[in-house]
Amino acid sequence: MKDVIIIGAGPAGLAAAIYTGRKRLSTSIISIDIGGQGNLTSHIENYPGALPQTGPELIEKFQTQAQKFGAEFVFGKAIKIEKTDNNFQVTMGDKSTHEAKSLILTFGKVPRQLGIPGEDEFFGKGVSTCATCDGPLYKDKIVAVVGGGNSALEAANDLSHFASKVYLIHRRQEFRADELTIEKTKNNPQVELVLDSVPIEINGDKFVNTVVTENKITKETREIKIDGLFLEIGSVVDTSIIKDLADINEHSEIIINERCETSCPGIFAAGDVTNTPFKQAIVAAGEGAKAALQTYTYLTGSKATLDWKK
Ligand SMILES: Cc1cc2nc3c(=O)[nH]c(=O)nc-3n(C[C@H](O)[C@H](O)[C@H](O)COP(=O)(O)OP(=O)(O)OC[C@H]3O[C@@H](n4cnc5c(N)ncnc54)[C@H](O)[C@@H]3O)c2cc1C
Q1: Is ligand 1 within 6 A of the CB of residue 9?
Q2: Which range marks the domain in which residue 277 is found?
Q3: For residue 210, which phi and psi values (nearest 5 degrees)?
C-alpha cells in the first residue's frame, strides 16, 4: 500500500513524483513509458531554466530528480481504477494490481490511430507514431507519413534525411501547417505528396510491406511499397478508465479545480489529461506540483501552505 500512485510519467507525473517524494509520501509511478509526449519533442526551447535541448534530454533530468526522491517506477498500462473502502486499486494490463491511499492521474494524451486493418498488427513492426524516435531506423528505406499538420510535415522533412523516399499521405489538398514548413515540404525532392487520399489498409509479412490508399474524390486505390509508416495525425485523451469515478468534460478531459482536485475525493489530476488550458510541458509540470501538494494536504490534513507570506 502506497500513499500515492501516479499514473503517467510525462512532465506532469514526474514533477508530481518529485513533490510527493520530497514530502516523504511513498510513491509509485505506473507508466507505459517515461517521458510521454516530452519524448516526441525534438527541440524544446520554452522550458524555463533549460536551455534549448531535445525533449528526451529534459525528461532524463526529470526522471533522475524523481528517482532521487524515492519514486518507484512500475512499467505497464493501467487498465482499471477502482475505489476500495478508503483506498484505490489500479489494475494493470497483465492483471497485477497496485493499491494506494490516493491517486494522481497524469496520463496525458496518446497518439491518434487510424483504425484500419493491419495497424495494430504492424504497430512497432513498421508502424510508428514517433518519427523523432524511430526515423533513424529507416536509413535508405522507403517510408510514408500520414497527416497534414505541422508535425506530419516536419516528420516528412526529418525522415528525408534518413530515408531514400518519403510519401506524405494527406486527406486534403491543403495543409494545416505554417507557410514556411509547407514550402519546405513541397520543395523537398525526396517527398512525394499523395493528396486527397487516406490509408485504408496496411499489409506486410513480419514487417510492413505496403500501404493501400484510397483517393477520396476518384475512389481509386493505390498500393504503395514502404518499409515504414508514420502516423502524425494528432493525439487524443483516453479517460475511459476513470470516467465512472470522476467527472470528465465533452473533450474527454478530467475536470479539475484550481487545486487539481477531481470530483472524486482522493483522486487528483494534472497536465494534458485535464481540462487545464495550454497543453505545454511547463504547464503540465506546474500542475503536477500542485496536484502533489494537494495530495499531501488530503493525506495529512495539513493546513500548511507553501505561500511564503501566509
Ligand atoms: C511533437 C510535440 C512537440 C511538443 N513541443 C513542445 C514544446 O516545444 N514545448 C512545450 O512546452 N510543450 C511541447 N509539447 C507538449 C508537451 O509535450 C505536453 O504538453 C506535455 O508532455 C504534457 O505532459 P503530461 O505529463 O500531461 O502528459 P504526457 O506527456 O502525454 O505523458 C503521459 C504519460 O502517461 C502514460 N500513460 C498514458 N496512458 C497510460 C495508462 N493507461 N497507463 C499507464 N501510463 C499511461 C504515457 O506513457 C506517458 O508517460 C509538444 C508535444 C508534442 C506531441
Answers
A1: yes
A2: 2-109+237-300
A3: -145, 160
